[in-house]
Design a protein that fits this description.
- With 356 residues, the chain is an alpha/beta fold.
- Helix content is 35%, strand content 24%.
- Strands 1, 2, 3, 4, 5, 6, 7 and 8 form an 8-stranded mixed β-sheet that branches. It has a 6-stranded mixed β-sheet with strand order 10-12-11-9-13-14.
- β11 and β12 form a beta hairpin.
- The protein is globular and about 60 Å long.
- The chain binds NADP nicotinamide-adenine-dinucleotide phosphate.
Length: 356
């Protein structure tokens, strides 16, 4: 996929802080969704905005933040630490002066003058909303989009990619394919020129954690309860343990990096809820196998040979192996805890769009 950068939306040299800053850009960001991921993104900017500014020559300004209660908007920039503090009190709409109860995301986007919209609302497997509408509105208004929410891509990949092309803006989503695991970037950029024969991946850390404990002898219910206690698993864990989260990621990977138009129904999905001790040890593996007409997609528990690069993947890790013709197998793994690495993945997309 080609990404188009609208440099005219990024203001150059608007700083009066001396010649070092003459080539500096300002990049306005709207955060739609201010849960753990949106909040972590704001925290990262609060902690290292100045470092990023000198390293990448870009002043990243949050000009809007949106949650279900309302929004905070200031075209001149919101203070990220104060945004986090306002959310701690319940909603970004508590932000002093700039906070607006009941201001919708679409209204906030229009008022934000954002160059890049960061979409981090909850995933929906029914219709991809509210994410699809936010992303559509942002792209149509000529804004770049960086996503953590998989839903819109699973439901409307082709439409959104076409909208981005038509409006000559970037649509980036590396955070949707395993948080900080650099899945898309490797497939699309680092393996350029190779043929990817097979992909094998552990893309859902919740089910991998539970299955790892089951492999050590714990029953499913005990392993799930421990994952819930550690807040690795949701109260309703079905999306993860029935394999749908991994299938979502596989669909996005197929559409974006494997040039294979796919929907969820194209993935053969088997979860981990039915397994007994006699089946173990197993790993929940997402696979894409090249065929004469694209890739065959599956998510299922499999027994990996001991020497397989993902066989000893630690319980809180994710990993991917690309089997290619020119490079051979290439494996990447990540040990990811909490939302911060996903926020960091959004940041890398933002810097690719807005950095020098
Ligand atoms: N957490 C992770 O480690 C992780 C990793 C990879 C990908 N992701 C994906 O990243 C996305 C965000 O994750 P999260 O953990 O931050 O999710 P979350 O806890 O569900 O937070 C979602 C945020 O979106 C807001 N929201 C919901 N509906 C909205 C609407 N109609 N208009 C405006 N705002 C709305 C929520 O508002 P309220 O705060 O008012 O409820 C909340 O601030 C999800 O799609 C998730 O699947 C998360």
């Amino acid at each position: 996929m080609f990404h188009f950068i609208r440099t005219n939306r990024v203001e150059r040299g608007d700083s009066a802080e001396g010649s070092d800053m003459a080539d500096e850009k300002t990049c306005r960001l709207a955060l739609v969704g201010f849960g753990p991921v949106g909040r972590s993104f704001a925290e990262i900017l609060a902690q290292r905005g100045e470092v990023l500014r000198s390293r990448y020559g870009v002043r990243l300004l949050i000009t809007a933040a949106v949650d279900r209660t309302g929004s905070a908007v200031d075209r001149n920039g919101l203070d990220p630490a104060r945004l986090v503090a306002a959310k701690r009190e319940g909603t970004v709409a508590r932000y002093p002066v700039a906070g607006r109860e009941a201001m919708s995301g679409v209204e906030a986007l229009a008022a934000s003058d954002a160059d890049i919209v960061l979409e981090a609302t909850p995933v929906s497997l029914t219709d991809g909303e509210p994410g699809v509408s936010f992303v559509r509105a942002a792209l149509t208004a000529g804004r770049h989009v960086v996503m953590a929410n998989k839903g819109p891509l699973v439901f409307a990949y082709a439409e959104l990619a076409e909208l981005a092309r038509a409006h000559r803006v970037a649509l980036k989503f590396s955070a949707t394919l395993g948080g900080s695991l650099p899945t898309y970037n490797i497939a699309a950029r680092d393996l350029a020129g190779c043929t990817i024969e097979r992909v094998e991946a552990v893309l859902n850390s919740t089910s991998h954690y539970i299955l790892s404990r089951m492999n050590m002898g714990e029953p499913y219910a005990t392993a799930l309860a421990e994952a819930q206690r550690l807040e690795i698993a949701e109260r309703d864990p079905r999306l993860d343990v029935e394999g749908w989260d991994a299938a979502n990621k596989l669909v996005i990977l197929a559409n974006s990096a494997l040039d294979t138009p796919a929907v969820l129904a194209d993935v053969a999905v088997t979860g981990i809820t039915h397994l007994t001790a006699a089946d173990l040890p197993l790993t929940l593996l997402a696979t894409a196998d090249r065929t004469s007409s694209g890739y065959q997609l599956a998510v299922r528990p499999v027994r990996l040979p001991e020497e397989h690069p993902l066989a000893k993947l630690p319980p809180l890790s994710m990993g991917i192996v690309f089997h290619t013709d020119l490079i051979g197998p290439l494996t990447v793994t990540v040990d990811e805890r909490g939302p911060r690495p996903t926020a960091a993945a959004m940041l890398r997309d933002v810097l690719e769009i807005g950095g020098r």
